[in-house]
Write a structure and sequence with these properties.
With about 325 residues, the chain is α/β, with parallel strands linked by helices. It is built from eleven helices and twelve strands. The strands form two sheets. Strands 1, 2, 3, 4, 5, 8, 9, 10, 11 and 12 form a ten-stranded mixed sheet that branches. Strands 6-7 form a two-stranded antiparallel sheet. It is globular, with a radius of gyration of 20 Å. Bound molecules: ligand PBG. Ligand PBG binds next to helix 6.
Length: about 325
């Protein structure tokens, strides 16, 4: 083994050009997915107080916002709907005139090549705020599958390009795949929230989506943050059920999970840089405690280095602007 002073790693760090040549990980705008919240019953965009710069959008303003995203070079949006009416079974989640179905049609009409990914989960639509149907005080797995299937189908019927089930029910990828295939949508990819952890980092999102559970928590379906082997089993199952893209969520505290999933499979991997991760950085930056741009690029590069192919992030427009400039 040759060693110092023969070997000097600083040689390739001397200037920008040299550092660029040896750079191992790159972040591109075409790897970014921007989440959008579409809300019923508002006329003007409403900022989410815990997520500075992120809005609840009324349908009427959606086209313009998506056009702005497209002009920045961002290839895809991830849509969440916030309905006026919630009920026990989340009826608005799979209604033909539901907020999300209308939003999909509008985006595909106004910016046709924007890839529309939809979150498939009942929690924004149920009165109890859980991701499936409740019976005897518990979230029923198999009864929820049927509704999630209907929801995914209604999204692709409205024109969604990709559906992303985030409910963490067992068997949902298979249920959605077989229903879509049966109904003539065998070309619609499924992006499975495979390793989705029961995380405190979703706090600001729940304010944005009004989806806090009214009783209990999500630990009987979302994963224990302590487990990684179990995440690999979730990924394996979702692949067997027909997932096209697997996701790890959240991202920052789960980089090892991303890496292990990367090493264990050959599917494209998405990582979700979630609301709490966004809000922490924003808050610290607004206080002048950190350099936002530097920190955001470092975090997203870290997520890519861990093995993610694409990153879902509320920072997407800012990053796209920086990468352009
Ligand atoms: C719906 C869903 C959640 C998020 C994405 N889809 C919330 C949850 O599971 O409680 C969180 C996204 C974020 O925090 O940015 N189930």
């Amino acid at each position: 083994m040759t060693n110092f002073p023969t070997v000097r790693l600083r040689r390739t760090r001397q200037n920008d050009k040299l550092r660029g040549l040896v750079r191992e990980t790159r972040l591109h705008t075409d790897q970014l997915i921007y989440p959008l919240f579409v809300a019923e019953g508002i006329n003007e965009p409403r900022e989410i107080s815990s997520m500075p710069g992120i809005m609840n959008w009324p349908l009427e303003h959606l086209g313009r916002e998506v056009e702005r995203i497209a002009n920045l070079g961002i290839p895809a949006v991830l849509l969440f709907g916030i309905p006026n009416d919630k009920d026990e079974v989340g009826s608005q989640a799979y209604a033909e005139q539901g907020i999300i179905q209308q939003a999909i049609r509008r985006i595909k009409a106004e910016v046709p090549d924007m890839q529309v990914i939809t979150d498939v989960c009942l929690c924004e639509y149920t009165s109890h705020g859980h991701c499936g149907v409740i019976h005897n005080g518990t979230v029923q797995n198999d009864a929820s599958l049927q509704l999630l299937g209907q929801m995914a189908l209604s999204h692709v019927e409205a024109g969604a390009d990709i559906v992303a089930p985030s409910d963490m029910m067992d068997g949902r990828v298979g249920a959605i795949r077989s229903l879509l295939d049966e109904q003539g949508f065998n070309q619609a990819p499924i992006m499975a929230y495979s390793a989705k952890y029961a995380s405190g980092f979703y706090g600001p999102f729940r304010e944005a989506a009004g989806s806090t559970p009214q009783f209990g928590d999500r630990r009987s379906y979302q994963m224990d943050p302590a487990n990684v082997r179990e995440a690999l089993r979730e990924v394996e199952l979702d692949i067997a059920e027909g997932a096209d893209i697997v996701m790890v969520k959240p991202a920052m505290a789960y980089l090892d999970v991303i890496r292990q999933v990367r090493d264990a499979c050959n599917l494209p991997i998405a990582a979700y840089n979630v609301s709490g991760e966004y809000s922490m950085i924003k808050a610290a930056a607004q206080n002048g405690w950190i350099d936002e741009r530097r920190i955001v690029m470092e975090v997203l590069t870290g997520i890519r280095r861990a093995g993610a192919d694409m990153v879902i992030t509320y920072f997407a427009p800012e990053v796209a602007g920086w990468l352009k400039g």
